[in-house]
From TrEMBL:
Name the record gives this protein: Peroxisomal membrane protein
A Gene Ontology molecular function term of the record: transmembrane transporter activity
Record InterPro entries: MCP_dom_sf, MCP_transmembrane, SLC25A32-like
Superkingdom of source: Eukaryota
Sequence intervals crossing the membrane: 114-139, 210-231, 252-276
Family statement drawn from the similarity comment of this UniProt entry: Belongs to the mitochondrial carrier (TC 2.A.29) family.
PROSITE patterns named among the record's database cross-references: SOLCAR
Keywords, alphabetical: Membrane, Repeat, Transmembrane, Transmembrane helix, Transport
Keyword Transmembrane: yes
Source species taxonomy: Eukaryota, Viridiplantae, Streptophyta, Embryophyta, Tracheophyta
Pfam families from the UniProt entry: Mito_carr
Membrane topology: Multi-pass membrane protein
One BP term from GO: transmembrane transport
Start-end of each Solcar repeat: 2-96, 114-237, 252-343
Length: 362
């Protein structure tokens, strides 16, 4: 089994475990990102980040525990596919680049190691392949995570219109409108399934709807690029310190991988978060708010409207939640992936030893 295949499978396994652990935070964060609000007139005051726990409890109260896990099934499929594809191509490219660097080192061209820029390019190429293949899954996940939120906004808008009509109507019409209002008030948005999400996306935008948010998502390839650049640089430095007499050929521990992964993801998230918000806005149901300010025709339109109606604050909604979720997920993913790779390598080594022992006995 090649190292690229092992890395891909280990990445998929680590990604699934990390996703299950952090999914409730991801659901709340997506809702925070897609929530519209006007520009703040005064600085200060608590933001949505400070109310993450409250939002989680409120979500459980209104939608049950299932609300925290809306879209989990396609998300797990997407995570397995994304991490598997990403790590497979990342390891494949990494092996080739390391071979080239080693060959150049033997010729006296460089020190035989891969430079920081090369790590960026490798991660960017692997990330672009991953995005093009898996973005339809994440469009469905975003829809399922924000469906009840969008439906609630639609119901609120209908309610406001009915109240205005009641205030202007004659007694007979007002009675009929009040019955409609009572029926509307009894409606409760409920999470919908994957097939419903697929039908809704196709009905709204056709096949192209499954690739909404592609531009900011492709630009966001720099997120894992930055993440892996930081991760590889830190792990390389740590390993070089361990290469002395005191720690001969000692691998970095699972906890060290966890901490390095956390620092790498934190740095990448801080740089690219505004693009993540734009992506979520484009992939969410566009009827939120039912007005022009809340509907986007594309990436540039979304950016301009967010600046105009919400200010720069809009690009950082839910950032606190995202930092906690993404750093925890990345740390778990890196740690589990590395342990799975070590396990597979050990398993292969033992299998080979067993086969050699049997062949020698013969």
């Amino acid at each position: 089994m090649s190292s690229a295949v092992v890395s891909g499978l280990a990445g998929a396994g680590g990604g699934i475990i990390a996703q299950i652990i952090t999914y409730p935070l991801q659901t709340v964060n997506t809702r925070q990102q897609t929530e519209r609000s006007a520009k703040k007139k005064k600085a200060g005051g608590g933001g949505s980040d400070a109310s993450t726990l409250f939002q989680m409890l409120q979500l459980v109260q209104t939608e049950g525990w299932g609300g925290l896990y809306s879209g989990l099934k396609p998300s797990l499929i997407g995570t397995a596919a994304s991490q598997g594809i990403y790590y497979y191509f990342y390891q494949l490219l990494k092996n080739k680049v390391e071979d080239v660097a080693a060959a150049r080192g033997k010729k006296g061209l460089g020190d035989g190691t891969v430079g920081m820029f090369s790590w960026l390019v490798i991660a960017a190429v692997a990330g672009s392949i991953n995005v093009l293949l898996t973005i339809p899954i994440w469009v469905l996940v975003t829809r399922m995570q924000t469906h009840t939120q969008a439906e609630r906004k639609v119901i609120e808008s209908k309610r406001e219109l009915l109240l205005k009509e009641i205030s202007r109507a004659n007694p007979i019409d007002a009675h009929i409108l009040k019955d409609r209002l009572a029926k509307l008030d009894s409606e409760k948005p409920r999470p919908y399934g994957t097939l419903q999400a697929i039908r809704e996306v196709y009905r709204e935008s056709g096949i192209s709807g499954f690739w909404k948010g592609l531009v900011p998502t492709l630009i966001m390839v720099c997120n894992p690029s930055i993440q892996f650049m930081i991760y590889e640089t830190l792990s390389k430095r740590l390993k070089s310190k361990r290469s002395g007499k005191r720690f001969p050929k000692k691998n970095i521990t699972a906890m060290e991988v966890f901490l390095i992964g956390a620092m790498a993801k934190l740095g990448a998230t801080l740089v690219t978060y505004p693009l993540l918000v734009v992506k979520s806005r484009l992939q969410a149901k566009q009827e939120i708010g039912r007005n022009a300010a809340s509907r986007y025709t594309g990436t540039l339109d979304a950016i301009l409207k967010m600046i105009r109606y919400e200010g720069l604050h809009g690009f950082y909604k839910g950032m606190g939640t995202k930092i906690v979720q993404s750093v925890l997920a990345a740390s778990v993913l890196f740690m589990v992936k590395e342990e799975l790779v070590k396990f597979v390598v050990l398993l292969v080594a033992r299998s080979r030893t067993l086969l050699l022992t049997r062949s020698n006995k013969r």
